[in-house]
Amino acid sequence: MNLIYVHGGVSGREREELPSLEGPRRAGLGAAGALDAVEASVRSLEDNPALNAGLGSVLNRRGKVELDAGLADGAAGRFAGVAGVDVRHPISLARRVLEDTPHVLLIGEAALEVGEGLERLEGSTAEQHERWARAEASGELALDRYGASEHVDTVGAVALDVAAHLAAGSSTGGVFGQMPGRVGDSPIFGAGIYASAEVAVVGTGVGELFLETLACFRAGALVEGGLDPQSACERVIRYLGEVDPLEAGLLALDGAGRVGAAFRGGSWAVEGPDGPLNPARLP
Ligand code: ASP
After folding, report:
1. How far is the CA of 248 from the centre of ligand 1 (A)?
2. pTM higher than 0.85 for the full model?
3. What is the rounded CA–CA span in Å between residue 10 and residue 121?
4. Cα–Cα distance measured from residue 250 to residue 246, given in angstroms and rounded to the nearest whole number
5. Contact at 8 Å (CB) between 267 and 280?
6. Where are the beta strands (DSSP E) in the chain?
7. Where do the domains of the chain lie, and which CATH numbers do they carry?
8. What residues have CB less than 8 Å from 200, skipping those under 6 apart?
9. Catalytic: 154?
10. pLDDT tier at 13 (50, 70, 90 boundaries)?
11. Looking at 12-89, which runs of residues are DSSP E strands?
12. Cα–Cα 20 to 30 A to 229, which of 42, 126, 142, 214?
């Protein structure tokens, strides 16, 4: 059986409002290996309309969905991402890029060439469209409001299988009100996602901060250097806080099955084999 941890994004929501992630975690339990487990769990997260990925994705400044996802196979040392796409399960599109192309990153409409049979999204939920209309009317879409705590909530998963292979997956609608064409950290290896033979890491928060610091690689490299995953996540989250006081979360799993999770900000739902995890909340 696979060891899986899933998360629902660092959020401005109250802890009591966070959705249960037990279903998404279970979705990957019986999968054939870590990569399948991560894909199955992230697909289930993408199906939850309360989360900012797949069905429930936030809208950009023009009121459109532009989704990003990344999938890392730590054992094989391989990665693939997709950016600015409009399919219900971007994580599965990333899987197609990983397995059916010689490329690492495909973007926009053209990426759908490898997505035959994947369901397209018409838009997001009625709730997200109403939210966008309210935001447009009130001026909340102004770029100086970009990255407010209620504007994020990406999803992700890390898994370890019986063969001791690690994998990581991340999927997001991006940041509410982002400029059209903006790409976040989820499909960029080392920024919002990282995996090797020794560790799998996913991040959540305003992607620009993760892109400019290669936050997931930093945490992964610390674990590869001998630090335990919890200390590694805490150290990098503290560092990110010094760079910019934005909300940010890091989840890491090593080859021994040790997990680490730390964040700054309002709340963060992380689910593991023993139920909801209590990620360290740093000042
Ligand atoms: N990291 C995601 C992005 O910047 C957003 C999030 O974590 O909620 O696209």
Report:
1. 9
2. yes
3. 24
4. 13
5. no
6. 3-11, 67-73, 78-85, 105-107, 155-160, 166-172, 193-195, 199-205, 248-254, 259-264, 267-272, 275-276, 280-281
7. 3-276 (3.60.20.30)
8. 34, 72, 74, 158, 159, 160, 166, 167, 168, 194, 220, 252, 253
9. yes
10. confident
11. 67-73, 78-85
12. 42
Residue 64 has pLDDT above 60, yes or no: yes
The pair of three-digit structure tokens given for residue 147, joined into one six-digit string: 């990255």
137-176 per-residue burial string, b: 16 or more CB within 10 A, e: under 16: eeebbeeeebbbbebbbbbbbbbbbeeebbbbbbbbbbbb
67 CA to centre of own chain: 11
Q: How far is the CA of 164 from the centre of ligand 1 (A)?
A: 28
Residue range 157-175, pLDDT digits in tens: 999 999 999 999 999 999 9
State which of 10, 128, 185 you would mutate to test the pocket of ligand 1, scoring each by most atoms of that ligand within 8 A of its C-beta. 185
Q: At 66, list the tokens.
A: 């532009």
Q: Which two tokens stand for residue 15?
A: 């802890």
CB 6 within 8 A of CB 24: yes
Q: How far separated are the first and last CA of the chain, in Å rounded? A: 36
> What's the mean pLDDT in 80-109?
98
